[in-house]
From TrEMBL:
It is found in: Cell outer membrane. The lineage of its organism: Bacteria, Pseudomonadati, Pseudomonadota, Gammaproteobacteria, Vibrionales. One of its GO terms (cellular component) is cell outer membrane. It is a multi-pass membrane protein. Belongs to the TonB-dependent receptor family. Pfam families: Plug, TonB_dep_Rec_b-barrel. Gene3D superfamilies: TonB-dependent receptor, beta-barrel domain, TonB-dependent receptor, plug domain. This is Vitamin B12 transporter. GO terms for biological process: cobalamin transport; monoatomic ion transport. SUPFAM superfamilies: Porins.
Length: 608
């Protein structure tokens, strides 16, 4: 707690140190996640963070977790190191309440209802857009606390390059990419191999097979191709394939070392039609598969394979300089195929229509969205979302928003057959489950002060019919209240981003804190640029958390420092190094699961 108070005290004194700095170039950054169509980031009312390829390279990230953990409202719980299970908490809600998209196409497992963060590639990603706040009225289920959109497509160009990295625990990563383009067509491709021997993530496990190191081996390919058929019509095809083998520690007696072999692919065909600036239409057809084979928990491997086919039609019409209308249609079908688990039902369908509008009148702007979903498993759900913003002065804007959202029960929660796990008890699905429903409101002030960008926000989410993970019943109510402070500023040649988050996430039925959520979080990133040199120093503090729902098992707070530096030569060669957990802190984000000690990485890249 003393560290948190100190950090807040330092933040409160920052204005006196501000030099004149305003990142005005960001105001014209284009984003697509807020309303499914391009708009300037300054026009969005809900907060959107944009992480570019350059940002990813600056911190020399090895996983998506390395990138997301620095963002406002984000907390991460790791069950080990690279390739291990990781849970994202965005504004107090778990990973399954954040919608993950790849080029605007929904990804993630239909059985577990969440996205494997370790299976998402970084090489080949051009930018990541992270929207905080409910967006179910635009996207449907899962967009409860936010949306993470990973975008691989780039502006058509001719470029290519290779890179390689080595590091602690026998880490090795190599990537090759190329892009070719002319006036009407383009092709981008990225191929990556990544491996790491890891470390023993659970040293006190009763399973004798858990005493080994838990590593990962992964290969993936990303590609997108497009052609401009006419001035108004463009056709795009993008795809992603990954094969991964990872070790993990189950913690119970088993028939051998725990391993998972997984294959994932995602393919999308997108048609874009544009009639001058007033009308745009996108038609998307996609399919993806998430197949996993689990070893060690039985005499034979346990295989679960899920498929999703989807179709969407999105439209945007600019009526005049004041009003823009959006609307469309979504359909997807989930299937559980070729699995060794015999679910009570192996498919479900979802059909939805949505309508939205954006109004801009001088200093005032507003937006509203409504969506109606029909699901074959749980029936109809209607969600609404409204938001407004008013510019009080050139340097200050106030925003208010309210949104309804829902989280659909997963296949496992609905249809898992009764199965017992010895001392772990029994588990079975419940076909009578209804979606979790959430109502969220937020008030925020945004502006500049002494040249610094500032955002101060307070939000509250109320959840009903929350599904108990043990009994699989709609029993709990949750009340989440939070505040966030974000500032970006410059002192001399140093660029800073400071984040403070306060989170009070309680089960209203028991008045206990939700597990693995810290009440206090501080992040401070500092970047230094000098000629061809780039240095990035990051600090992350997380307060104490509870591992259990009764708040009897405490996970202590911790502070981490990461350091990355690189040098760019004139011939296109770039060399860099990174030290993660510079102070070699021992900490846990999930009880009983070790995290990495101090780690070292070296990398080299060459852009042709």
């Amino acid at each position: 707690m003393k560290k948190t108070v100190l950090a807040i005290a330092v933040v409160s004194q920052l204005p006196c140190a501000f030099y004149s700095y305003a990142d005005s170039s960001n105001a014209d950054t284009m984003v697509v996640t807020a309303n499914r169509f391009e708009q300037k980031i300054k026009e969005t009312i809900e907060p959107v963070e944009v992480i570019t390829k350059q940002d990813i390279n600056a911190i020399q990230a090895t996983s998506l977790v390395d990138v997301l953990k620095h963002l406002p409202g984000v907390q991460i719980a790791n069950q080990g190191g690279l390739g291990q299970s990781a849970e994202l908490y965005l504004q107090g809600r778990s990973s399954s309440n954040t919608l993950f998209l790849l080029n605007g196409i929904r990804i993630g497992s239909a059985t577990s209802g969440s996205t494997d963060l370790s299976a998402i590639p970084l090489k080949g990603i051009e930018r990541i857009e992270v929207l905080r706040g409910p967006r179910a009225a635009v996207y449907g289920s899962d967009a409860v606390s936010g949306v993470v959109n990973l975008i691989t497509t780039a502006s058509p160009s001719n470029r290519s390059g290779v890179s390689a990295s080595v590091g602690s625990n026998k880490y090795f990563d190599t990537n090759a990419y190329f892009s070719v383009a002319d006036d009407v067509s383009w092709l981008n491709m990225s191929v990556t191999h990544q491996q790491n021997d890891g470390f023993d993530v659970k040293t006190n496990s009763p399973n004798i097979h858990d005493s080994d190191n838990d590593g990962v081996l992964s290969q993936y390919i990303l590609a997108d191709v497009g052609r401009k058929l006419s001035d108004s019509l463009t056709l795009k095809l993008n795809g992603y394939y990954q094969r991964k083998n990872s070790d993990y520690d189950y913690g119970q007696s088993s028939n051998g070392a725990d391993q998972t072999d997984s294959d994932l692919y995602n393919v999308g065909l997108i048609t874009e039609y544009k009639v001058d600036p007033s009308y745009q239409s996108h038609l998307t057809v996609a399919t993806n598969q998430d197949s996993a084979e689990f070893h060690g928990q039985g005499a034979t491997p346990n295989t679960i394979s899920t498929n999703r086919d989807s179709f969407s039609w999105d439209n945007r019409y600019k009526l005049n300089q004041v009003l823009v209308v959006t609307g469309g249609f979504d359909w997807y079908r989930d299937r559980v195929d070729n699995g060794s688990i015999e679910y009570l039902s192996d498919k479900r369908r979802n059909t939805a229509g949505y309508l939205g509008g954006y109004l801009s009148l001088g200093d005032f702007s507003a937006e509203g969205n409504i969506r109606r979903d029909k699901n074959s498993a749980y029936g109809y759900v209607t969600t609404n979302q409204i938001a407004s913003a008013y510019r009080l002065s050139d340097d200050l804007r106030i925003t208010m928003s309210y949104g309804e959202s829902f989280k659909a029960p997963t296949f496992n929660q609905l249809y898992w057959p009764t199965q017992c796990f010895g001392s772990g008890g029994c588990y079975s699905g419940n076909p009578s489950l209804v979606p979790e429903k959430t109502k969220t409101s937020e008030l925020a002030f945004e502006g500049t002060y002494y040249g610094a960008e500032l955002r101060l926000a307070a939000y509250r989410s109320r959840v009903k019919d929350m599904i108990d993970s043990l009994s699989n019943e709609n029993v709990d109510r949750v009340d989440i209240q939070g505040m966030e402070f974000v500032s970006k500023f410059e002192t001399g040649s140093l660029y800073h981003t400071v984040v403070y988050d306060f989170l009070d996430a309680k089960n209203s039925s028991t008045d206990k804190q939700l597990r693995r959520r810290a009440r206090h979080s501080v992040k401070w990133d500092t970047e230094y640029l000098y000629g061809a040199w780039q240095v990035k120093l990051s600090y992350l503090f997380q307060g104490k958390r509870y591992e259990d729902t009764r708040n009897q098992k405490v996970l202590g707070g911790y502070g981490l420092v990461d350091l990355a530096t690189s040098y760019m030569f004139d011939n296109g060669v770039k060399v860099g190094g990174r030290v993660a957990n510079l102070l070699d802190r021992e900490y846990q984000t999930a009880l009983g699961y070790n995290t990495a000690d101090r780690e070292y990485y070296l990398n080299i890249s060459y852009d042709l």
